[in-house]
Amino acid sequence: MEVQLIRAAIEDKPVLRNLFQLYEYEFSDIEIGSLADVNEHGLYDRPRYFDHYWTETDRHPYLIRVDEKLAGFALVRRSSYVTSDEETCSISEFFVMRCYRLEGVGTRVATELFRLFPGRWEVAEVAANLGARLAQGHRPLHQRRVQRSRSR
């Protein structure tokens, strides 16, 4: 199985936006109220920051392909949500389609992201996201073995 992490060009924005709809749908069973609702066109409105991934230099959008087929996406930001440290990278959003989970795709993509952006990382998961927990073998992030670059 060939897993590719490909920088999403501006031409890929509609594709990534479509994949984001699948991602948002997966959260609809754990979000409450308007966050789980679709608009009058049957689409999720979020996120407001989506377009910024093609206009701001500290944001990096990626598509995930498995054997050349679309399999998900990763949105990386060089900024900490916890400490405001602009040198720390964070995974803002991360999605692997269900049919590719439990195959090690997420781990391989995370490893490649850590290689592409060496240094400090901030990675979090939504505790109520059972799908992500199952895909990662019920292990908390700090117990998962993912090869990463050391900061210098």
Describe the overall structure.
The protein is of the alpha+beta class and 152 residues long. Helix content is 22%, strand content 22%. The chain is built from three helices and five strands, in the order βαβββαβα. The chain has helices at 13-27, 105-116, 130-135, and strands at 3-7, 59-66, 69-78, 89-96, 121-122. Strands 1-2-3-4-5 form a five-stranded mixed sheet, with helices on both faces. The longest helix is centred in the N-terminal third of the chain and has 15 residues, at 13-27.
Q: What overall form do the CA principal axes indicate? A: globular
Main sheet specs:
5 strands, mixed
Q: Which blocks of ≥5 consecutive residues have pLDDT under 50?
A: 132-152
- In the sheet with the most strands, the strands line up as 1-2-3-4-5
Average pLDDT confidence is: 80
Q: Could you spell the SSE succession in H and E letters?
A: EHEEEHEH
Rg of Cα set: 15 Å
As a percent range, the share of helical residues equals: 10-25%
Instruction: Give the count of helical stretches.
Output: 3
Quaternary assembly: single chain
Number of distinct beta strands: 5
Gap between N and C termini: 33 Å
Q: Assess the beta-strand content as a share of residues.
A: 15-25%
